[in-house]
UniProtKB/TrEMBL annotation:
It comes from Polypedilum vanderplanki. Belongs to the major facilitator superfamily. Proton-dependent oligopeptide transporter (POT/PTR) (TC 2.A.17) family. One of its GO terms (cellular component) is membrane. The chain crosses the membrane at residues 70-90, 97-119, 131-153, 165-185, 205-224, 283-300, 330-351, 363-384, 584-608, 620-640, 652-673. GO terms for molecular function: transmembrane transporter activity. It is a multi-pass membrane protein. PANTHER family: OLIGOPEPTIDE TRANSPORTER-RELATED. It holds the Pfam family PTR2. This is Oligopeptide transporter 1. It is found in: Membrane. Keywords: Membrane, Peptide transport, Protein transport, Transmembrane, Transmembrane helix, Transport. GO terms for biological process: oligopeptide transport; protein transport.
Length: 692
């Protein structure tokens, strides 16, 4: 007997040693390097597009911030909604390899359409091209998302290569964040600092480089085909689960009175078997916990929309470097790579001392941190609002009068307050930013009396004020008056100029950017507002430099030029709206909070879900997790569509309060969550196998 026990112990030790020996000898599959490289290129493509998308929608397609936000989050929602479709296509029809190949081609076509639509001189219907491109990109990106990681996992032989599989997933996750990191740095530089196709920026290159990377991703993936282990289709578990639930509901409606069951899903046992019914029960218990998850993603994904627009109203110029508004998103992948090991080594042991050990507790804390991030956004927005220009409200108007000639005037009007009587020296301007206009319009009379030059003529005129508008009058010094409605609001990450010139008709006005060359060239006349890149500019008339000025982000400028005498010019640059003054680095606290929240909420949540789910349900759960991201983006689109608040600060506060309430609900659900023991599921599975 003792000898028998000893032999059993020896056998166990020998088998354990053999497994360890096999694991050590098992070579790392070379095929996965192609998959990891493919993922890096694809993620570079996806995050590169998302980084510059919001600014493209507002600057080039001239959509409002709200409309751009709705489209941005609608696109993200489509991406994650198509994950389920991709999983069904892969598991039920084409298999993972062919699904990745064909949907990647669809993905690339979307990239190309986006790039072509961004070439302004070709005059393609850029809005239509953008929408078609985004839908195809969403289908491609979302469709391959559930396939690539799973296909990589299939290259390993388990349990012999369990250690290598863990290394692969670490490499895979690292490649995702590395692609995001580099693309978020590079694509904003390309679209801002490069001049192409006669444009002052280069969105075609910003979209085009990601398209090139997507082409490389497809080529790399195809090159690895001879090395791949391609398994036959197993059937789609998501479809089976839906069928099980549908059958249980219909059977219960028929047999509720004649065949009572303990649980409503038990009615599907006759058709789908006890094992699938129990696994579906486990899945639904987890999905109840998923109910609060979409709101976290609603906050998290605003980094590319609301937070990017917030960055456009801040100052990223540090002299030696200029940080673009969309480049701030790079903080997220950078901090993720730092926070994941730091949390495991330092933060989680510290939290354990305070009783925060369980995954659901960490997730709750992560969700609360996301709410704190939006409180930071709210506080920052309140300070930013103090720097915004004073815009006329209904019942009020603004008056600005520019003197574009050598004559000094005394101006008398029949208006009240400061606008009743004022002096207007040569090359100067006057403003009164609060004039009552009780109706839609109000006309007023003004008299110009010269002060310093007998050769200058006095004149009278009639001006018009529009309610809720900024109104300006330009006196060109040649008895010509130009009246116009102005726009003094800040632009999204650019500067705005208007040139008011009193010059010979044959003259040209040129603005020469210190790095980009000629940005602005027009005949001498009254010029419309134009958005231009920030930087140092030479102001030139007929190839002669007459002045130099630094144009700063968010500023609105009027450049007044007149000819003093032949070949000699006077120029003055008036700052109508002050440029952005709050440093863009003040965004770091909210990025810090939301990234730490992601590590505690998202990474912990995935780990918890996988440990709680049966083996056969892990892919279904992955699809459901992706759907929560899509629903979260849909929430943002709905909130923005309602336009509940005029102030962005109140919208940030709303999201923060919703997140805190959401986490309170999540805590309650976590308290009542009782998983089905996996041992019981294993027992049912063994019984099922024995019957076969």
């Amino acid at each position: 007997m003792a000898a028998s026990i000893k032999s059993k112990d020896d056998l166990i030790k020998r088998s354990t040693t053999d497994i360890e020996s096999i694991q050590k000898k098992s070579k790392f599959p070379k095929s996965v390097f192609f998959i990891v490289a493919n993922e890096f290129c694809e993620r570079f493509n996806y995050y590169g597009i998302r980084a510059i998308l919001s600014l493209y929608l507002t600057r080039k397609l001239l959509l409002s911030d709200d409309t751009a936000t709705i489209i941005y989050h609608g696109f993200a929602s489509l991406v994650y909604s198509f994950c389920v479709l991709g999983a069904i296509i892969a598991d039920s029809f084409l298999g993972k390899f062919l699904t990745i190949v064909w949907l990647s081609i669809v993905y690339l076509i979307g990239n190309i359409i986006m790039t072509l639509g961004a070439v302004e001189p070709w005059k393609l219907p850029n809005l239509e091209f953008a929408m078609i491109g985004l839908v195809l990109i969403a289908l491609g990106s979302g469709g391959i998302k559930p396939c690539v990681a799973a296909f990589g996992g299939e290259q390993f032989k388990l349990p012999q290569q369990a250690k290598q599989l863990a290394i692969f997933f670490s490499m895979f996750y690292f490649s995702i964040n590395l692609g995001s990191f580099f693309s978020t740095i590079v694509t904003p530089i390309l679209r801002e600092n490069i001049v192409c196709f006669g444009m002052i920026d280069c969105y075609p290159l910003g979209f085009g480089l990601p398209a090139v990377l997507m082409s490389v991703a497809i080529i790399i993936f195809l090159i690895g085909k001879p090395m791949y282990k391609i398994l036959p289709n197993q059937g789609n578990m998501f479809v089976k689960v839906c069928g099980c639930i549908a059958n249980a509901i219909s059977t219960r409606a028929k047999e509720k009175n004649t065949n009572p069951c303990e649980h409503w899903l038990d009615y599907a046992e006759a058709k789908y078997g006890r094992k699938l019914v129990m696994e579906t029960k486990t899945l639904l218990k987890l999905l109840v916990l998923y109910i609060p998850l979409p709101l976290f993603w609603a906050l998290y994904d605003q980094q590319g929309s609301r937070w990017t627009f917030q960055a456009t109203r801040m100052d990223g110029d540090f002299g030696w470097i200029t940080i673009q508004p969309d480049q701030m998103q790079v903080i997220n992948p950078l901090l993720i790579l730092i926070f994941i090991p730091l949390c495991e080594i330092f933060l989680y042991p510290i939290l354990a001392r305070f009783g925060i050990r369980r995954p659901l507790q960490k997730m709750t804390l992560g969700g609360i941190l996301a709410g704190v991030a939006f409180l930071c956004s709210m506080v920052l927005e309140i300070h930013l609002e103090k720097t915004y220009p004073l815009l006329p409200s209904s019942g009020e108007s603004q008056l600005r009068m520019f003197n574009g000639g050598p004559c000094a005037y005394e101006v008398t009007t029949n208006l009240e307050g400061n606008a009743a009587k004022f002096e207007l020296p040569p090359n100067s301007y006057f403003s009164d930013l609060k004039i009552k206009v009780p109706e839609e319009t109000r006309s007023f009379e003004y008299k110009l009396r010269t002060l310093n030059n007998p050769n200058c003529a006095s004149s009278d005129g009639v001006g018009l004020l529009n309610s809720g508008k900024a109104n300006s009058i330009f006196l060109n010094g040649k008895n010509y008056v130009n009246q116009y409605v102005d726009d003094t609001d800040k632009s999204n990450g650019l500067a705005t100029i208007r040139i008011l010139a009193s010059l010979p008709a044959t003259s040209n006005v040129v603005l020469m950017h210190s790095k980009k060359g000629i940005i602005y060239e027009e005949p001498a006349s009254f010029h419309e507002l134009k958005e231009i890149p920030v930087g140092n500019y030479k102001i030139m008339v007929d190839n002669k430099m007459i002045g130099e000025h630094k144009i700063q982000i968010g500023g609105v400028y009027s450049i007044v030029i007149y000819e003093v005498n032949q070949g000699k010019f006077s120029v003055n640059v008036f700052t109508i709206t002050e440029p952005n003054s709050i440093s863009i680095l003040w965004l770091i606290p909210q990025y810090f909070c939301v990234t730490l929240a992601e590590v505690m909420f998202a990474v912990t949540g995935l780990e918890f879900s996988y440990t709680q789910a049966p083996e056969s349900m892990k892919s279904v759960l992955q699809g459901c997790w992706q759907m929560t991201v899509g629903l979260g983006n849909l929430i943002v689109a709905i909130v923005v569509t309602t336009k509940m608040f005029e102030s962005q600060a109140f919208e940030f506060l709303l999201f923060a309060l919703m997140m805190f309430l959401d986490m309170a609900i999540f805590m309650v659900l976590g308290i009542y969550y009782k998983p089905i023991p996996l041992e019981e599921l294993k027992k049912v599975e063994n019984e099922s196998n024995e019957k076969k």
